Amino acid sequence: MINENVWHDGKVTPPIERGMKEFIIAVYRASSNKVYSFAATYLNECLLSYENSDCPNKGKADHDCENCEDGCPTSGWYELTGDDYDGSLYLKLHLNEGDYIKGWRTVPKWEETTTAEA
Q1: CA proximity to 77, closest of 8, 5, 30, 31
Q2: Of 16, 20, 97, 118, which one's alpha carbon is 20 to 30 angstroms from that of 44?
Q3: Handedness of CA 64, 81, 12, 97 (dihedral sign)
Q4: Is pLDDT at 106 greater than 80 in this prediction?
Q5: How wide is the angle at C-alpha 103 spanned by C-alphas 98 and 109, nearest 5°?
Q6: 98 neighbors 8 (Cβ within 8 angstroms)
Q7: What are 66-75's contacts with CB under 8 Å, separation 24+?
Q8: pLDDT band at 53 (very low <50, low <70, confident <90, very high)
Q9: How does residue 24 score in pLDDT terms, banded at 50, 70 and 90?
Q10: 93 has a pLDDT exceeding 90
């Protein structure tokens, strides 16, 4: 179970079942020496289709890309682009040398008792 009200260490993988879940992540960017927070999706063995045999599992001893008609099992941090009409595209989170994920947390939900400040 994920504690939804705290930041979790970026070295720890979110404990989600097979599938995907959106989180807020904090990424340290070495080029600017700043931390940026934004939405990212963690995929845990999600079946993604790859073009031009770009499967990240290609060449692994326990994986046969020929049997991935429904997609290759993919895990890790991804950014979701596109929309439901044209289809979604998952891009692997790009980290330059020296960049790293400082932490992640669940996306806060708007509660009925929540009030916005003016």
Answers
A1: 8
A2: 97
A3: positive
A4: yes
A5: 140
A6: no
A7: 71/46, 71/47, 72/47, 72/48, 73/45, 73/46, 73/47, 74/43, 74/45, 74/46, 74/47, 74/48, 75/43, 75/44, 75/45, 75/46
A8: low
A9: very high
A10: yes
